[in-house]
């Protein structure tokens, strides 16, 4: 199938062209309203989707068997091959699933229409789960969805990893996530994409219930292309903290397009992005925080910082606030620049070569985001993954030395 062929069709014709069931009628209607995205679409202005939309794709078609039971939820080319051995976690596999009728992203709806299946995960109580996605089908279009639900008061940590190489593939995936009242979710996602590999567009819809909490940490590395559009809705007293670290090199195009919407009063949102861009890489942070009329007494803060390592790199940073009330606290900002010459001079004055000094400053910049992870084992793994991409190998002792340098610098500065 060729996604661009769906342009201009009505909902019935879209359903038929996608081979989707009547139960996905609402997704087809919304896709007909929004249209197939082009370079001129607002949400895709920095991530031209034409090569994905105009290609005629062979879709991945496979059969779901009985999954094994193990330490993690493992999904291989949309097939669940392992479910976690944890009574607090319920997993179901079906062909339907809830659809957010107010999402802004047309590929969110296309993803639903082309999904092989939906993997529903319900957290009934506190749990810690690893979700592994594997991609092995080159040059094909793969679609599947995850439906995640936290029962009220559940406290959950999800680590999401991506494995495998599917050169030239297009992966349409994403979460429909519901954080129940007074529940808490820490969602830590790490993804390294290589040039010529698969291109993921992970489109998410998130609702955080009354008094609920979502801590989102995304770590995107490498020279490949990919985008994560997401919509997050906050009810009364809900809170989201979203932290994004991007290291892109080569000809990469990577980033986040997000809309965080304060629907209920007293909700809090904090969004911070750090991007390190090398070669001719392009980073994207196109983020909106919207405070609706019902979002009184909101606190909303947004910030993006980017370092360009050479003249060929580009950062498209667009933090935005859209506010319809007076009673709130809000801020946003964005900076893009080079490495701080004063810090570079400081290190070089102590006998450190320029190349090593630059690496130390980059690691210190990145580690500020990795240090936010409380789980020590996971934090060390993320240090290692960043090192492997940045250095080509991992040696945590260097990072420890780097931390030491930072501390020494701060001590010396505090003593004048």
Shape: globular
Largest sheet: 11 strands, mixed
| Class inferred from helices and paired strands | alpha/beta
Strand content range: 35-45%
Nearest-angstrom radius of gyration?
22 Å
Number of strand segments: 24
- Give the spatial strand order of the biggest sheet: 2-4-3-7-10-13-16-18-20-22-24
Mean pLDDT: 92
Number of helices: 8
Low-pLDDT regions: 397-416
**Percent in helix:** 10-25%
**What gap, in angstroms, lies between the N and C termini?**
66 Å
Describe the structure.
- 22% of the residues lie in helices and 42% in strands.
- It has 8 helices and 24 strands.
- With 416 residues, the protein is an alpha/beta fold.
- The strands form 3 sheets. Strands 2-4-3-7-10-13-16-18-20-22-24 form an 11-stranded mixed β-sheet, covered by helices on one side. A 9-stranded mixed β-sheet has the order 5-6-9-12-15-17-19-21-23. Strands 1-8-11-14 form a 4-stranded parallel β-sheet, with helices on one face.
- Helix 1 (11-18) crosses helix 2 and helix 5 (341-348) packs across helix 6.
- It has helices spanning 11-18, 25-34, 50-53, 106-113, 341-348, 354-370, 376-391, 396-414; strands at residues 58-59, 68-70, 73-76, 79-84, 89-94, 118-123, 127-134, 140-143, 145-150, 155-163, 170-173, 175-179, 184-193, 199-202, 204-208, 213-222, 225-234, 239-248, 253-262, 268-277, 282-291, 298-308, 314-323, 328-337.
- The protein is globular, with a radius of gyration of 22 Å.
- Residues 397-416 have low confidence and may be disordered.
